[in-house]
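Journal club prep — side note

Before the paper discussion, L.F. wants everyone to see what a predicted structure for a comparable chain looks like in token form. Sequence:
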Amino acid sequence: MAVAADGVRRPAVMADVARLAGVSLQTVSRVVNGGDHIRPETRARVQEAIGRLGYRPNKAARALATTRTATIGVIVTEGSLWGPRSVQRTVEQVARQAGYFVGSVSLDVVARPELTSAVDHLLSQSVEGVIMIAGYDEALQLVRQQDVGVPFVVVMGDVPEGGGDTRDEQFDAARRATRHLLELGHVEVAHVAGPANWVEARAREAGWRAELAATGLRPAEPLRGDWSAASGYAVGRRLAADEAVTAVFAANDEMALGVLRALAEAGRAVPGDVSVVGFDDIPSAEYLVPPLTTMRQDMTALGRLAVCRLDAAIRGSDEELPPAPAVELVVRASTGPRRGPAG
């Protein structure tokens, strides 16, 4: 807020920001609208002034002046899961830093009426583009059938145009996770798979199968969970009863957490009796007992890539986009050599 000559507090305007930061109105406008060619120290000074004054750009005035609303929409499904939730948080933060206003809609159920209603709600706010965070078939199919009229970017499960195929990356990462266990001498590598209607779950399962086949091993059928720790615990109890299984690759860390509990309750030591690998590297993974070996996904980079793609589409730019973030094997104490002969 700013204080007028009569002592009355009023909402800050751009001139107040310029005065406090010691820059021109044009410079403030360029910072607010995400303009380029501004020195970092100048941008920081303007942003500090904006924060101190609580300045809020006039959305209507910006739209009239630029014929743009600088507003994007975000639709998120399965927002209770760590991956979608992390991507959403990054998308909203990075979009605001890029000068966009962000309107978000969370969907518990994705069917045509719900998705259509969410899109209509965002379009009523004159969004210039939409990012949807969804990874399962029904949502992706509905998105492809939507005629939105503005750029539409899908994160998790879809192919990022110009940025590499995330499904290939998931497939390759699952192969590396399985290879890590095989190189430790394990010959019975079980898989706790994600839901069959998720693109990423299928890619990870396919990578596990491919790596076992490449070494002449025939995989047993995977045990399927729903991404939750509870489902990992349920299938983990079955795995714990099979002494032939000495290694488990879980399609995400939450299910791996459930597997670890089931093995502990059955008296099977990790990694002495069974090695466990997860996927995602959730913040708690390194604090589990034992710390979890996992495939690290950079959800922050994934969210940034989504904003880059949408921004380029809105601006009609054909600039080269950054590649999809790589998935990294993080070895911790939950994996170790197989006991006894490896044959």
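L.F.'s comment for the group: The chain has twelve helices and twelve strands. Keep this in mind when we get to the figures.
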